[in-house]
Amino acid sequence: MTTVIDAVQELPDKELLSRHTQGDDRAFGELVRRHRERMWAVAIRVLGDSEEAADALQDAFLSAFRGAHRFRGEAQVSTWLHRIVINACHDRMRRKMVRPAVPTEDATLDVISNERTKASTPDPTGSSDSAMDVHAALGKLPEEQRLALVLVDMMGYRVDEAAEILEVAPGTVKSRCARGRARLLPYLAHLRNPEHSRDVTSPRGGDRAS
Amino acid sequence: MTSHVDAETLALSAEGLLEDDDESTVQQHVADCAACAAQRSELADVTRALAEVPAAPLPDSVAEQLEAAVRAETESRRAEGGGSGSGGSDGGSGDGSTAAGSGPPTPGLPPNVVPMRRRWINYLAVAAAAVVVVGGGTAVMRGFVSDPVDGRLAGPGDGASEHSAHKDAGLAYHPVVVESGTVYTEDRLTEQAGGVLRQSDPTTPDGAEGDAGGSAQEGRADSSEVPDDVSSCLQARANDSGRNPMLVDLAEYSSDGAPSPAWVMYYGSTPGSGEQDSYDVVVLSPDCGTGGGSAPVLAETAVPAP
């Protein structure tokens, strides 16, 4: 029995976190392996840039490692990790905002930064791929709307799950999503139909003057 | 026909967030208006477009970095002696990625991530920092901000061992706290922050070295008295982000000609290191730490280290 329980793969998240705080050196690594894909998916969607997302992910897991004793246990470990990842993303976005074209000693980062600048400008030719378009459009939203849309529309989380992660009321998540979608409308309409989606979706041709 | 419904109202309607009256008005209008009906369906398309964005899988290189990071942090914790209680069997983790007692304190990270690696090492040096701010009440918080000499966050060499002794007492984190008397403004924020940093460089031992002129001392004079609410603010922000400022300026901020109290946090670009490339400067209003959620940020900038 004991040997079975001792295999960290068998333990529930909360037990792993608890063991981690008690000094078990294997527990946290197992948590990382369990959650890293999902946390990556959040970070890459929020930040839209793999270098930034990798940074945020590492910041977040590091933060979780050190702050494990803060976990209260009333939430799921996964929910708690989501919060930490989102906070790490928030930090990244904030830094990017105050330092848009950060000069670094690392040439690759400069390239990435240039690419990011390019991506944030809508491409009038519509030739860039849709993921890029979506991210550029998301970048125009207030952060809270972006986060709500990432969780609900992109990740497919239920509103109450997103609400718990974001620590706001479900109604707040809904309204952030709604306002975010409305704002995205002009940017994303062409993704559904490069011509003019209104012509297609409306049986009467849509663009009736009024 | 009633006037058209804007996209936001349509979106709120779709979420059932409108009042009954408004909702029925919208419904009536959309029933008769092809343009609004089309726009409503486009809103659903937005959700679809978002859902269809393909998920890039976690790159192997990033997974490896994480493994290495956890391994390094584990090493660091073990070196501090705080985490030695696990004992027991070592037979569990199949791939051994966390338990492997390998490597020097400086982990071997992939070579393509230089900036992250540098940051990581520095995090090691202040591994105890985030731990700190949580447990203690205000008394502890007063303690942790009270010593500007040790406020210089530990360098890579001396950090872990020195601070581990304080870990349980919550004393590992010591920002430099000053009252510069600056009235920060949005336009001049970068310039002002640069000036305060030159006066009160948190990476220098006590600011008394004098090479920045006579003002270095006075800028630090008040560092022992830190209001409880500032401590709460620091605590809240550390809980949110895991970051702690190296320098806190209890000052004022003016957005409309009327200065009001503001706390200006200077986050070093390489926490834990004696050398900083730059600082993120965040101006917070004093209700930071009282409300839930993120702190009210009045202004932000980034400045190079002095």
TrEMBL record, chain B:
<keyword id="KW-0472">Membrane</keyword>
<keyword id="KW-0805">Transcription regulation</keyword>
<feature type="compositionally biased region" description="Basic and acidic residues">
    <location>
        <begin position="70"/>
        <end position="80"/>
    </location>
</feature>
<protein>
    <recommendedName>
        <fullName>Zinc-finger domain-containing protein</fullName>
    </recommendedName>
</protein>
<feature type="compositionally biased region" description="Pro residues">
    <location>
        <begin position="104"/>
        <end position="113"/>
    </location>
</feature>
<feature type="transmembrane region" description="Helical">
    <location>
        <begin position="120"/>
        <end position="141"/>
    </location>
</feature>
<feature type="compositionally biased region" description="Gly residues">
    <location>
        <begin position="81"/>
        <end position="95"/>
    </location>
</feature>
<keyword id="KW-1133">Transmembrane helix</keyword>
<feature type="region of interest" description="Disordered">
    <location>
        <begin position="188"/>
        <end position="230"/>
    </location>
</feature>
<keyword id="KW-0812">Transmembrane</keyword>
<dbReference type="InterPro" id="IPR041916">
    <property type="entry name" value="Anti_sigma_zinc_sf"/>
</dbReference>
<keyword id="KW-0804">Transcription</keyword>
<feature type="region of interest" description="Disordered">
    <location>
        <begin position="55"/>
        <end position="113"/>
    </location>
</feature>
